[in-house]
């Protein structure tokens, strides 16, 4: 906390923001640790706006263009599409303070949240934290590349502050967490500015099997700025939509089976799902200890890797993280960032029948054009590098985490493991909470039934349209009683073997003349790609790769690797990104056009 008298604190943040909103860039002046706020006399006349456009209302004359929600300048500086390096440069040169940047992002929240709803809760202490980070910088201490950079975390990641941690459920309102999640604590130590909690699919999609992606009782419906009527990707929906719409600089999400890669690729941003055990799950509301993995969202690979570097590492509270010892690079992952010239040495595999054949023709064609560009940059592309097990383990009909059961073998199904793990892991998580009566899956089920109107315990129409199938996911977990029987262990062993040594690793070994491939290139809009990586516990990165003509929704190009293959993912991901940005290809990140910005359909459509 700065030693200053700190007048800002007496002022409601929104008063400050309203001045910025009116384009008064001279309103906030920051000098040293003291934040001097000039409080203008707001006369009756100045309370009304003759021209609220373009910032206060979306102008229907520019509907279906990226000008619909123009991001206001921040003290004359363009923040839209700014990178972490650019923000550091502004702060380092004294052009902007972290306080100013945070206020400008607050203004962006104000402008967009009624529409895309990426924010669930704002950190009431963000101004004080920003001011103390500014004060620290004034004294010459810069903690690192994330010093003063505003971010949000998915609401299933514990923060030991004045914010709630609820997985979007009203059942956990008022509960008190024992401590920050390790990954949050690491980001605070790195100087990043926690601006708030992002919306999500409630309970990270564990509770229902037919639901509106991005919806939670506490947070409402998160929407993608690319097409607000459609599935925004999930379950880290708000984290991804907010980064995509420049509502915050970066975000953390969590993945059990797709919840980082899917929302990242559907919002034209970079998402990294680390190897299970690289990033601690301590303080993260769990689904399955075998598959859960928190990771970063950023607009560029470099931004995402700054965050990965800050959050990975062993943690005594999550014993899976001990597996990384000796397997991670000494100096972090930034050293692997490279450019397109590296592609001259790359050899990538295309698991065509395993995954690509499942994509629609438009995506196949566009992604193949991108692959052709990668080849023309010097890379060797090897087609038909299939997972030997694909005919058994890859669902032909879309994402299905109970595909083993669909085939007639529950003892070979991912869901057999996840529903048992959830029962046990959530009980352990809840046991550390204070100020709540919710202790286990039984309590959650009872609560949801008792609050049908908000939580949709029963299937629609007794419950709510967003949870069409009610809480069938919780009921399946409840029925398992968390018993780790023979079927559980068979399923665990089967899922791991068929996706690891007999799956992804075998495909990676199909390089020319028995050499190893540098990565598998896959279309992550095909959910079975991240589904197989999820069962393996293996890492993935997705890069923005184009927009679908029928829906306006983005899709990605993803790279798959083996356990602890993050150096390769960072290297080749950054090389391909540099190629995209430096070549005139249309198959890269583009700004959202906010299709359907006035529609409020629930459930969102799964197109
Ligand atoms: C901007 O804020 C300053 C300081 O409060 C004030 O003097 C000035 O009149 C404001 N300008 C506008 C255009 O509102
Ligand atoms: C899932 O929910 C939608 C309504 O949101 C419904 O139309 C559809 O039939 C449901 N699917 C199944 C398999 O029940
Ligand atoms: C973590 O600890 C649990 C319980 O003590 C144990 O069953 C499990 O095998 C350990 N996992 C790892 C990866 O060390
Ligand atoms: C290609 O790999 C070789 C051997 O590892 C290395 O010496 C060379 O610098 C690499 N070239 C590029 C462009 O990265
Ligand atoms: C890979 O092979 C399949 C046939 O197995 C073909 O349809 C596809 O176009 C090929 N893809 C590339 C990138 O060569
Ligand atoms: C699953 O059970 C079937 C018998 O129903 C058996 O044939 C199969 O080998 C089992 N799978 C595994 C992975 O043990
Ligand atoms: C594979 O081996 C053949 C025959 O030894 C050789 O001509 C070819 O260049 C090798 N290819 C690669 C990619 O090393
Ligand atoms: C947005 O999605 C809707 C489906 O809800 C679709 O009808 C519409 O065409 C999409 N908009 C654009 C511009 O692609």
UniProtKB/TrEMBL annotation:
- Which Gene3D superfamilies does the record match to this protein? Amidase signature (AS) domain
One Pfam family recorded for the sequence: Amidase
Database matches in InterPro entries: Amidase_dom, AS_sf
What keywords appear on the UniProt entry?
Answer: Signal
What start-end ranges are recorded for coiled-coil regions in this protein? none
Q: Which residues form the Amidase domain?
A: 104-397
Keyword Signal annotated: yes
Q: Which residues form the signal peptide?
A: 1-18
UniProt keyword Nucleotidyltransferase, yes or no: no
What is the recorded name of this protein?
Answer: Glutamyl-tRNA amidotransferase subunit A
Provide the species name: Rhizodiscina lignyota
The taxonomic lineage of its organism, from the top, reads: Eukaryota, Fungi, Dikarya, Ascomycota, Pezizomycotina
